[in-house]
Design a protein that fits this description.
- By secondary structure, this protein is of the alpha/beta class.
- The chain has a single domain, classed as TIM Barrel, CATH 3.20.20.300.
- 41% of the residues lie in helices and 14% in strands.
- It contains eleven helices and twelve strands.
- The strands form three sheets. It has an eight-stranded parallel barrel, surrounded by four helices. It has a two-stranded antiparallel ribbon with strand order 4-5. It has a two-stranded parallel ribbon with strand order 8-10.
- The two termini are 21 Å apart.
Length: 314
């Protein structure tokens, strides 16, 4: 079954009959899990087994946002209280000790994810903290230093890939410059390319992540009309050329309030602008059906990059 250019979510801790029907008829690129899907260790393992069985794919992408502390979907079943910013502060004090501790922490986290059946974690957050950064990023960011963010981002990707967990860098081309929470409204950033390139774009440039997630932000001095997820200029000229990202570009959640259109339009505008995949996180079954019917199959580029991801999962 060919994959559709969408990552969906489900509503509860088991697949409903309608969700089973959807997955038997259509193949999304992947499924992302949330706290609402997780009740116990055995339950989540069984849910993932059921999904992979329906997909007839042992490496079917199962994603999660498991950053730690404030963004931990697994916190009811594992202890995961470390924040990225803790490691950033430690790194500034002693790079060698911080690197050793962080690598050990990542290995332990990857082992837990693999044991459950999860194979993609949407880390690292490569947003650089600024004085006006909204709390939605906050301590999820490693540091105010773009160099520290870049270094720890590289360590995250290398260690996760070495332990057969694929990463998603986010929120490209940078959310730290925004004082607004894009879950609630559309942030507008008035900085020019030179200022953004020096700080916010920098950590995204040196990574080898196979996946990246967009920031739903209007960068008014680059494209005054389109939020970045809908902007051909930002995706083609900034993300692909200036930053040089060569992997699969996925949108952030298309049900967030930063995007002002209906879900179908949000999905189409994201893909037309140059996103390879769209992400829908609400888990509404009617919308899952509508969206998966409306989006195209993945293109050759995305299929090739997906094969590269599957090689990491071996």
């Amino acid at each position: 079954m060919r994959k559709k250019a969408i990552i969906i979510s489900i509503k509860g801790t088991t697949l409903t009959k309608k969700e089973e029907l959807l997955l038997s008829r259509e193949k999304p690129w992947g499924i992302i899990l949330f706290k609402r899907n997780i009740k116990s260790f055995e339950q989540i393992k069984n849910l993932i087994k059921d999904i992979k069985r329906l997909m007839k794919d042992s490496k079917f992408p199962i994603l999660i946002d498991e950053e730690g502390a404030t963004v931990s979907r697994l916190k009811d079943i594992i202890n995961h209280n470390f924040e990225a910013n803790y490691f950033g502060q430690l790194y500034k004090l002693d790079k060698k000790i911080a690197t050793t501790l962080y690598r050990n922490y990542l290995k332990s986290l990857c082992d837990k994810l693999k044991n459950i059946g999860i194979n993609i974690n949407t880390i690292p957050v490569l947003d650089v903290l600024r004085n006006n950064t909204n709390d939605i990023i906050g301590k999820r960011s490693f540091s105010k230093s773009n160099l520290v963010v870049s270094d720890l981002g590289e360590i995250t990707i290398n260690e996760c890939h070495a332990n057969k967990i694929v990463t998603v860098i986010k929120h490209i081309p940078g959310h730290g410059c925004s004082s607004i929470d894009s879950h609630k409204e559309m942030p507008k950033v008035n900085l020019d390319i030179r200022a953004l390139n020096k700080i916010d774009f920098y950590p995204f440039k040196s990574t080898y992540s196979k996946l990246a997630m967009t920031a739903h932000i209007l960068y008014s001095k680059i494209d005054s009309k389109n939020v970045s997820t809908f902007s051909k200029k930002i995706i083609n000229e900034i993300i692909r050329k200036k930053i040089g990202f060569k992997g699969i570009l996925m949108s952030d959640d298309i049900s967030m309030k930063a995007l002002k259109y209906d879900l179908i339009t949000n999905a189409k505008k994201s893909l037309l602008a140059g996103c390879n995949l769209v992400l829908y996180c609400a888990g509404n079954i009617k919308n899952n059906f509508k969206l998966i019917k409306s989006v195209p199959y993945i293109d050759q580029f995305t299929a090739k990059k997906t094969s590269e991801i599957y090689k990491i999962l071996r």
